[in-house]
Design goal:
mainly alpha, 28% helix
Length: 172
């Protein structure tokens, strides 16, 4: 069991705290089984919130000032501009051709947000890939969404009598 907070210890705690020492440093100097948490608790109970100096020196951050643009004089509104018809520019000949939308062309590294994430092949093999086609909604393309999301099949017609009989069988 640790020794209690004597008047001497409380006085030393107040003095060291106001000097700006950390709770860990104060606990080491007080000794006798006083922990950092015990120091913090006593500081709060005593209401010692302010310090003369911070426990770590403040860092002098050098921030260069950005040059601000000079204020431009206010000009009177100019006359409306005439918009002329723009002639279409010739298409660039070096435009890349779009990649074919083949399934199995995406890897984990190339898989994007709007690409089908249907796995193709064995995950432990080197040939493993993902479908990679464009997915409009969800995580799969239209073809794989039809396979993944099957509509619920209802078994037979559910009339009230057969449903009641089925629920009562549990209790018989």
């Amino acid at each position: 069991m640790t020794a209690g907070w004597t008047e001497d210890r409380v006085g030393a705690l107040k003095k060291l705290w106001l000097e700006g020492q950390s709770a860990s440093q104060i606990a080491k100097q007080l000794g006798g089984g006083v922990t950092r948490n015990a120091v913090i608790g006593k500081v709060h109970r005593l209401g010692l919130s302010g310090r003369a100096a911070p426990s770590q020196p403040a860092r002098a951050a050098f921030r260069p000032t950005r040059p601000r643009p000079a204020a431009q004089p206010t000009q009177a509104p100019s006359a409306p501009r005439r918009i002329e018809a723009v002639q279409p520019r010739p298409a660039a000949a070096a435009a890349p051709a779009p990649m074919p939308d083949l399934p199995g062309t995406a890897t984990v590294m190339t898989l994007g947000a709007h690409m089908c994430k249907w796995p193709i092949g064995d995950p432990s093999s080197d040939e493993f890939s993902f479908c990679g086609r464009r997915s409009s909604e969800g995580v799969y393309c239209a073809e794989h969404a039809r396979v993944a999301y099957q509509p619920q099949v209802r078994k037979g017609g559910k009339d009230g009598a057969s449903e009641l009989a089925r629920s009562l069988r549990r209790y018989i």
